[in-house]
Amino acid sequence: MGSTTFQLRSIRWIIPLMALVTFVLTCLRFYYQQAHGIKESLDSQMVSDEQRIQEEQEILKEHQFQESIQDIMNATLGFNKILAINMPSRTDKRDQLVLGSSITGFVIDFMDGVDPNDLNSKTYTYNWNYEHSATEFACLRAHLNAAQRIVQQGLRTALVLEDDVDWDISIKPQLQTFAHAVRSLQGTTQTLAESPYGDEWDLLWLGHCGASCKTELPFYMIPNDPTIPQPSHLPNYYHGPPENVRPDTTRLVCTQQDAACTPAYAMSYRGAQHILAALSVNPSGFADQLQTGDQIDIELGRMCKSGLLKCFAPYPSLFGTYRSAGLPSKGTDQSGHDSEAQMEPATSWGLVYSTMLNIKHVLQGEHVVHATWPDVEKPVINPEDIHFESGYMYTYRPEDYPGPALIPEEEPFDETVFSDETISTDEAYSISRPHATRGPHLTNEPVSQDPS
């Protein structure tokens, strides 16, 4: 009887105890699930927050990049200054630059060119090649003066123009597209930079009569560019990218190997320092790294090729050249007038919608501009309708372009590039290098006269 009573009492305690344990375990399981769910939710929220922060940072970087590119629409095309080299006696060329830049909305600071008659013989660099003329050294000295001003004034960047330069009526959106290309090549599209063109460059060779590329590095392709002249209208270029790489309607931007002529180029502060050091002061063995003593474009090309300058260039050139109507000798500062020569119309080279040839149309209040040649796709167009597509990176592979083996060019150390006796204003680039003796990359004759 007693044993039975004890068992019954025990059962009465065990049942509530088991119920309590079950309840506690159920609660613990519930709280565990809740805590695990909260942890998963917190982890998910943290991932979501990180993604959101990353997306916001990318949006901010893109916004900053677009704001930087927008600086190109300012009065100095996104550079700190625009310097134009001009002989004081050539007031006609200064007039055309002032008027042309006013049409396209930028401001030029002029620098006096150097008269060879005013040269002090002591200013010649110790290794100057005296087979070249005083006029050639005066030209080089004028460009060195531009580099000197950049360093003296502490300019981060400056665009240097020669006074026979011309540019497309859409130069600002052209340069915005170029800036995106050159920053892509620098890998700085997502990096805050002081210059809209990025900060990893020394020289942007924007106007040239030929530019070649370092083929081991990527190119940037801008397809369907409406401002590229047809092949038959391109000037005689001395250098070019590899054959068949660039479709006729595509503008290519690349890390530059070499170039010729200097109607327009930009220097950074560091680039100007190196140019002064290598071509004038030679303080630390730069002359041992590359042959110096030749014309300015040959020297700059050598500095790009050697890596002393980090250079980028578009192909075809973004800037061209212009000769106003009159005697052929108007195109050069190196010879007098031939009164018996035949008057010639105004002529522009290398541009579809030349600013200089369209000044009359703009000043007359027309809302359209005229192409340099009548056989382009749109011979008359509203500048607001000129648009540029997004580009893409491209890696050159020689095996994709079978052809004859390429023979590296030898440096033309002893090559005579100028000849005062053979000056002819029929050449497109009359200031820095009008008469290079080596053959051009292209042989198409420019046909570019005033359409009006």
From TrEMBL:
Which chain regions cross the lipid bilayer? 12-32
User: Which CDD domains does this UniProt record tie to the protein?
Assistant: Glyco_transf_25
GO molecular function term, any single one: transferase activity
Q: Which InterPro entries match?
A: Collagen_mod_GT25 (IPR050757), Glyco_trans_25 (IPR002654)
- Which keywords appear in this protein's UniProt record, sorted alphabetically? Glycosyltransferase, Membrane, Transferase, Transmembrane, Transmembrane helix
Q: Where is this region: Disordered?
A: 419-452
Protein name listed in UniProt = CAZyme family GT25
Annotated source species? Penicillium daleae
PANTHER family, alphabetized: GLYCOSYLTRANSFERASE 25 FAMILY MEMBER, PROCOLLAGEN-LYSINE,2-OXOGLUTARATE 5-DIOXYGENASE/GLYCOSYLTRANSFERASE 25 FAMILY MEMBER
Top-level taxon of the source organism: Eukaryota
* Similarity-based family: Belongs to the glycosyltransferase 25 family.
Q: Where is the Glycosyl transferase family domain?
A: 80-183
